[in-house]
Amino acid sequence: MPDCPTGRRQESVKRHGRGKAHLLRDIAMLFLRLGTLAFGGPAAHIAMMEEEVVRRRGWMSREQFLDYLGATNLIPGPNSTELAIHIGHAHGGWPGLVAAGGAFILPAAMMVGAIGWAYTRYGTLPEVSGVLYGTKPIVIAVILQALWSLIRAAVKSRGLAILAAGAVVAVGAGVNELLVLAGAGLVAAIARSVASGTAAKPRTVGLVAAAGAGGATLTAGGLVEAGVAPATFGLWPLFLAFAKIGSVLFGSGYVLLAFLRADFVSRFGWLTEQQLLDATAVGQVTPGPVFTTATFIGYVLAGPAGAAVATAGIFLPAFVFVALSGPVIPRLRRSPTAGAVLDGVNVASLALMTVVTWQLGRASLVDAPTVALGVLGLAGLVWSRVGSAWLIVVGALSGLVLTLARGG
Question: Which of 72, 91, 113, 71 is closest to 29 using CA atoms?
């Protein structure tokens, strides 16, 4: 595709003699850095990726980024990790897919594994409240900047603006996230067909809707029936248990907690309630994917081998889903009906991100110092063009200093 930004980028790389190895190194180094500094959950990860791959590096257009973001919301698994995998595939082909996903996961998995070692040795979690106190306001600033630029690209008409507002209201009222996404895509397709005076193609709309739900159902059903009900603990049952969760889980870290409790505490009896709560806390407070909660659980249950097996199990489905769906997305955009569905899903995805940002903001901006950090972080991003990674480091150090000054 020589006419697309990604194609032009790759051709430019070849002309300058940098080669595929340098391209993969660029992808890996970027996502290693993001995986090391991406505090704040999926919304923050997405915001940092948009800053790096759209505004700073120009690896893809904002519209392409939005399409991949919308697609990740239609498949199960960790959304920000799947977005990283999509970006890697779009910019570096199949090797880029592996490099981006692996690099984004690796730093968090190593950190969580180290915490798992300390936990099994000493029985307590390291103190991280000071770091979180300072980084959370910066994360809110990063998300707000990305939201603004993405909304400007996604809301291309008055109809999409109304649809986005309706999605925000629906999510805020507690409507299931998948229903909001599917409904927005369907409404956008119908509106387009009415405006153009043509009937929407049911087959096209059905294929887009089935891309997420159908693949997830088939994969999950196969795993559930393939023996994810072991009576005794082992590395293979551990792998299957996490692969099942990675294949069927839509939603936030709170949904992950529910799945983990149902399987590892109630069904298998491998973990205690307190161990599960500690594992969830570790996944929330470390940078990178929240799904590295699995790494901690694997380490607690079976040491380094268990950590590796659990990490592979929960993330492997994400690579499979992206590999299957990624090549289809550019073709969907060329179809008017499917493009309308993607437009609807994109604005609904941003509506989800808006509601999450509001919730995170209420929990993060709790006093005058955190509000000041948030305002200064936003000013740094907008006017001085300071990289978000540097601001997060400054926020972490500021949080530590303020916490120590208070004696806490």
Answer: 91
